[in-house]
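Running this now, will post back.
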Amino acid sequence: MQQGNSKRLGCQFGIASLLLLMAAVAGILSLLRALEPRATVTGTVTLGGQPLSSGSIELVMLSMQRQNPKRASIRADGTYLFAETDRVAPGTYRVGISGQDSSGTLMRKRYSDPRSSGLKLSLRAGRNVANFDF
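Update: finished.
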């Protein structure tokens, strides 16, 4: 009976140690992620001098073959924002923009795909401003 309790206690101690180790690793990874440099980007998108009243802007990093693009909505005043919480890393990006102005004029379709738009944006760590006029 004593030996059974000893094995059970050892197993519980092992599981507790494993859980503690996993929590420590998760904490370290979270801290490292928080220390990564980030970029924020804000700007205005205009079409013929008029702000887009709706749409989206998409960033795809050039150096990454497979990456989830970063997306932001274009607000009614034509502005957009990639905040620090969007986790945009410094680097060079292909840009795709789609939307329309207040009169309903649509952006040309060629600009909507970051791979074929011809639009690029270089971002440094910290605050960046990038305006697009078509």
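The helical segments are 2-35. More later if anyone needs it.
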